[in-house]
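The protein record reproduced below.
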Amino acid sequence: MTDFLHPTTAKSRLYRTFAGFLTALMLLFQQQSVSQTNSPASRFGPVQLQSYKVSGSFGELRSNHFHSGIDLKTNEQTGLPVLAAAAGYISRVKVSNIGYGKALYITHPDGIVTVYAHLEDFAMPQILDTVASIQFQQQKYETELFFTIPLFQVNGGQIIGWSGNSGGSEGPHLHFETRHQVSEMPFDPALIGYSYQDTIPPAFQNLVIYTPGPGNGTFLAQRNLIPVDTSKSNQTIQETIEVPSNYFIGFEAFDRAGVEANLLGIKEYRLFTNEILTFEYKIDSFLFDQSRLINSIIDYPFWADSSRRILLCHTLPGNLLPFLKLTPVPNPYPAKGNTKHRIEIKDAHGNISELHFQVVVHANAKPLMHEKNVRILKSNQGDRIIGNKAELIISEKTLTEEVGIQLMEHAIDSPGFISPMIEIASPGTFAVIQPMKLTIKPDKKPNIPTEKWIIARLDSSGSFNYIGGKVNTDLSITGNIRTTGKFVIIADTVAPVLMDAIAERVVRFGGMEKVRILVETKGDFSGFSTYSCVLDGKWIPASSNLGGTKFEIITPVPDSQVNHELIVVVTDACGNNASKTYQLIY
């Protein structure tokens, strides 16, 4: 038996029978010698380009996560050769409709793992055959394979795949990562020599002075945005800024690697108060389960309203990121006279910009208070709010700062609703790190199977968004939520809609001609749970990563143009299903 593992069912009968095939492959390829070492001189660029341009930097702030690698531009095209960065063996292969799409993981002798994501396809025949065999046996497009022994060895510079736009990618590029093998922590590829040209220092956009909210954070805080000159790397705000006695500081900034390059993130920044270092942020690596804590180093309410990120020189109570350093010093903010501040920002290549300014306290700030009739929730503390028909549970890891919240119930006289409307309200916006658990009890018993009951959220346009949830023995439903709003139990009894299908010839990587079949669907409320495509009586892999509204099938060009029958079956998360048969000529 080989060390071939599947993440969910490693000892299943399927993989025991498949082990013989893998053992044969291992015997076939074990004679290959890996001549390259992992010294810096033997490392290769991960994609075949004359020069590297980046569209995303390591540690960059993304929606609810830190960027775990660097994004390399591929000239707005797919199908460029992707190269093994150094000698090693394929330790993981993943095919997904979301996230990294088609991705390869290579483990190297020095304990580093490199990741190559959003591929159009894999290049090694043995990987293609292995993935295809699993897909056909499971009759499922998405799959994930782990290899704990060097079954598929690669040399540095060997072509392992073709660049693409698969998964959650929003345009052709290669996402490249370096990780520590044991901890699986991603780290900045620049630390081991994978870099790109950048001589342009980062730029400040706005200085932000805060009057803290009731919990000494951004919730209900008041902010004063002071524009600065983005063209200067070292500048001073001449006017003294009046501040409240309990102020804290933030700023907007960006980085570029070239004049026409994408906006990149700030790798590190520091706040000096009267030339004493009082705050420091530097990201070289992080744990994936810390990623949502990105919302504790930005002004989350401001971002939720404007899609702009203000970086804080202030630690919120629920911020558990280990790479933040707050230096306690005796009385860094004197009550009288001016206080001098300097913010230093730096990119991954050591380019630095500085902003100098001074402040004076103009009055003792009157603390901002929570509104009446709200439940005050503190960070790092769990809580439970119980109503007549609803219950909200907040874990100790949910909040980054103190917030105020209300739970209200509104009766609804409509046959379409199975429960009252439950409103989770707050006078402000706040970040949710771990989801809150909302349980709603029905106040009606319609003649509809409970497997079709779900929690839905009513948005500002009057449309419902799917939340889902699990039906409990008392017929209440419990679901996870990350926002405030209005929630209700409804039933989804509407089947998905399959629309047109087209077949066309396309040229893929290497000039290879294929047939591409696209099946269009009408967006389903609860989303597709399973789907199956059968072409000419045989199941065939199909991806559904094209905005969630199309299925894509890639198949060889036949010897002659004939009629083909395609049967598509889809089932949504509530068990509603639809099928359609297409006649295609290609």
Observations:
- Residues 13-29 form the longest helix (17 residues).
- The domain at 203-363 is CATH 2.70.50 (Coagulation Factor XIII; Chain A, domain 1).
- The first strand starts at residue 4 and ends at 5.
- The chain has four domains: 4-192, 203-363, 375-491, 497-585.
